[in-house]
Structures are given as C-alpha cells and as structure tokens.
C-alpha cells in the first residue's frame, strides 16, 4: 500500500517523461530545421501498430456498417 500511496500522492514527474510519451512533432533531421516534420512518440507508435492490423481494419469496417449514424 505504501508504494501505491507514494505514487499517487508524491509522483516524480520529469520534463523528459512528457517528451517521450504521447505524440509530438520532430524534424526528420534533428539538427536541420528545414527538414520535414514527422510524428513521434511511444504511445503514437503503439497505437499505429495496434490499429494497422488487418483484423482491426476488418472490425472497424464491420462496425461502420452495423452502427451507422443516420
């Protein structure tokens, strides 16, 4: 219980934790501000992988037909 209370009431938040998680835009070449922007991030890559499987696309298409909005 002490571990959970410590995590809930005294979290250690670091600036770089926010840079890693979620999604963000970064330059393709990190030292060239004229290069193209691209999406990066741990959660972004996980969701991209999870939502790109053939089974997932099939289920989304079925749900579109089953649950049409008007």
Task: Fill in the keyword field for this structure.
single chain; 70 residues; mainly alpha; two-stranded antiparallel sheet; 4 helices; 51% helix; flat
Structure summarized in a few sentences:
By secondary structure, the chain is mainly alpha-helical. The protein has one domain (2-66). The protein is built from four helices and two strands; from the N terminus they run ααββαα.
Number of domains: 1
Oligomerization state of this entry? single chain
Looking across the biggest beta sheet, what order are the strands in? 1-2
Estimated structural class: mainly alpha
Indicate the overall shape.
Answer: flat
Distance between the termini: 49 Å
Approximate strand percentage: 5-15%
What is Rg?
19 Å
Low-confidence stretches: none
**Count of DSSP E strands?**
2
Number of alpha- plus pi-helical segments: 4
Largest sheet: 2 strands, antiparallel
Mean pLDDT: 85
H/E topology pattern? HHEEHH
Question: What topology emerges from the helices and strands here?
Answer:
Elements: H1 2-9, H2 15-20, E1 24-27, E2 37-40, H3 42-50, H4 54-66
